[in-house]
Fold this sequence. Notes:
The protein has 138 residues and is mostly beta strands. It has one domain: YVTN repeat-like/Quinoprotein amine dehydrogenase (Methylamine Dehydrogenase, Chain H, 7 Propeller). Helices cover 0% and strands 43% of the residues. It contains no helices and 11 strands. It has strands at residues 5-11, 16-21, 27-32, 44-45, 58-61, 68-72, 77-81, 87-92, 106-112, 118-123, 126-130.
Amino acid sequence: GNKGFEALAWDARSSSLMLGKERSPMGLFSLPFPGEDGAAGVMQPFGYGNLGMRDISSLTIDARTGHALVLSDESRMLLEIDRAGRPVSFLSLLGGLNGLDSGIQQAEGVAMDEQGNIYIVAEPNLFYVFSKAQPDAS
């Protein structure tokens, strides 16, 4: 398995890249881009507690909140953490939950749009969309 950086997301609020190291040891890091010249700053560990995950497959940043969404293939979970690294919410990718007939076996990538819809790609060539239910207007 991969032991290097597996995940990458742009954090517009801090003008930095968030990097995820898949395992051995698993970790999240922030790499600031301080200058107009595009020079990178010094990579810093991103403070977080126990994420309760076995690996990191992908990352994205929710532009509305600045929270990171951390995808774990092995744990079959998408975890939302705040800017201090504290868990906020999670989405189980197991079968029988969240509209999934069967679990997502090998989730590899995650993205989120401005409305909060979550997109996950998985092997082999699978695509999932998760949207919050809209309140009934009646």
